[in-house]
Design goal:
Largest sheet of chain B: 7 strands, mixed
Radius of gyration of chain A: 13 Å
Number of helices of chain A: 0
Distance between the termini of chain B: 36 Å
Shape of chain B: globular
Order of helices and strands of chain B: EEEEEEEEEEE
Oligomer: heterodimer
Helix content of chain A: under 10%
Distance between the termini of chain A: 41 Å
Number of strands of chain B: 11
Largest interface: A-B, 22 and 22 residues
Largest sheet of chain A: 6 strands, mixed
Order of helices and strands of chain A: EEEEEEEEEEE
């Protein structure tokens, strides 16, 4: 089955700096890659996603890149703010299946 | 839209008791997923339904766990009997069949003592 690895597990950045989280996946048939943000005591919230026919997608301060050949994808947060502090999860899904396989999560702390 | 609604938000129960977690998916969504989140294992898919039919329950840890979806707007996850190692946060998520985006509820934090 699909296996998703996520790094780093924790990330501390100064407010205004950029944060980058990287994920790799094992199943070359995966074609959908969402990113979720989870704040304390809440459920994961979808913040951005990318499909395998696209190499990059941007939404304001967040962007995601996908390298299908290398089977890795990344989340980039620019101009970080304290409210960006949360746990971020990457995930992958194949076209055939309907289930998401999640990475282990990255705890991001933005220091004011 | 109210989003995915789960109840209760918190549950504390004694070992051996039956526990029932409830989920109301987003109206119109026809895929429903139950996940478990722990520090050790992260987010694990337990089971998912399409059009109220269980499609993949390979993530259900053992026979003590069961899930039902009697109609399009309600699902339950039952643990009987519960054990301390079942302590975790249980999430329900829903999506539209044919659409990849899944939306999560707020979760139920289960503590078995």
């Amino acid at each position: 089955g699909e296996n998703v690895e996520q790094h780093p597990s924790t990330l501390s950045v100064q407010e205004g700096d950029s944060a980058v989280i990287k994920c790799t996946y094992s199943d070359s048939a995966s074609n959908y890659f969402p990113w979720y943000k989870q704040e304390l005591g809440k459920g994961p919230q979808l913040i951005i996603d990318i499909r395998s026919n696209v190499g990059e997608k941007k939404d304001q301060r967040i962007a995601v890149t996908l390298n299908k050949t290398a089977k890795h994808f990344s989340l980039h947060i620019t101009e970080t703010q304290p409210e960006d502090s949360a746990v971020y999860f990457c995930a992958a899904k194949t076209a055939a299946g309907n289930k998401l396989t999640f990475g282990g999560g990255t705890r991001v702390l933005v220091k004011p | 839209d109210a989003g995915v609604i789960q109840s209760p938000r918190h549950e504390v129960t004694e070992m051996g008791q039956e526990v029932t977690l409830r989920c109301k998916p987003i109206s119109g969504h026809n895929s429903l997923f139950w996940y478990r989140q722990t520090m050790m294992r992260g987010l694990e898919l337990l089971i998912y339904f399409n059009n109220n039919v269980p499609i993949d329950d390979s993530g259900m840890p053992e026979d003590r766990f069961s899930a039902k979806m009697p109609n399009a707007s309600f699902s339950t996850l039952k643990i009987q009997p519960s054990e301390p190692r079942d302590s975790a946060v249980y999430f329900c998520a829903s999506s539209l069949a044919g659409r990849a985006e899944a939306f999560f509820g707020q979760g139920t934090r289960l503590t078995v003592v």
